[in-house]
């Protein structure tokens, strides 16, 4: 029984080979930095076009019992975490020898550069230490999720392959 069918793999007994290709994942990581740069260096906050609708939705939800702590700041911080989860996951595949906290340090550096650029060059944007913290947290979560998923895949692969 084949665990997973991966058309990119030449041998079905090795479905995890594509995960062990750091050059591929480093290319994906570099490609991911391009849209992150657009988000970071867009002249106005990227959520500006939907701020009114989001505020209205939050008022609607609060009127129906959603707690007050679930506010605009919470949604924004959560979005920062979610934005960096893929970065942490891909970075952990690109640099498999690195530990989760080293991938978190990469997230810290990338986020710090983004926020510093906003501080120095974008007058309509606001650099925030909280953004650095939430982005770094997202990178750490991504690294931990990738590690857990790889461990699970390896265990399943070994169980299917047998002794």
List the helices and strands and how they pair.
Elements: H1 22-41, H2 51-63, H3 72-94, H4 100-121, H5 129-161
Structure overview:
With 163 residues, the chain is mainly alpha-helical. The protein is 68% helix and 0% strand. The chain contains five helices and no strands. The protein has helices spanning 22-41, 51-63, 72-94, 100-121, 129-161. Helix 1 packs antiparallel against helix 3. The radius of gyration is 20 Å and the shape is globular. The model is unreliable at 1-13 (pLDDT under 50).
Looking at this protein, list some descriptive labels.
disordered N terminus, 163 residues, mainly alpha, 0% strand, globular
How many helices does DSSP assign? 5
Question: How would you sum up the global shape?
Answer: globular
State the secondary-structure class: mainly alpha
Number of strands: 0
User: Per DSSP, what share of the residues sits in E-state strands of 2 or more residues?
Assistant: under 5%
Q: How many angstroms separate the termini?
A: 15 Å
Quaternary state of the chains: single chain
Rounded mean pLDDT score: 89
Compose a concise summary of this entry.
The chain has helices spanning 22-41, 51-63, 72-94, 100-121, 129-161. The chain is an all-alpha fold.
């Amino acid at each position: 029984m084949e665990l997973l069918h991966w058309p990119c793999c030449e041998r079905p007994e090795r479905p995890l080979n594509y995960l062990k290709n750091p050059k591929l994942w480093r290319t994906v990581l570099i490609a991911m930095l391009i849209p992150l740069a657009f988000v970071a260096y867009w002249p106005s906050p990227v959520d500006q076009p939907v701020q009114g609708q989001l505020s209205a939705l939050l008022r609607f939800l609060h009127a129906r019992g959603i707690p007050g702590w679930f506010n605009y700041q919470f949604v924004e911080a959560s979005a920062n975490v979610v934005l960096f989860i893929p970065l942490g996951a891909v970075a952990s595949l690109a640099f498999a020898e690195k530990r989760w906290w080293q991938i978190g340090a990469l997230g810290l550096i990338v986020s710090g550069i983004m926020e510093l650029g906003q501080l120095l060059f974008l007058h309509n944007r606001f650099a925030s230490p909280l953004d650095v913290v939430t982005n770094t947290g997202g990178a750490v979560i991504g690294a931990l999720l990738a590690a857990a998923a790889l461990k699970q895949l390896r265990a399943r692969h070994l169980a299917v392959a047998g002794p």
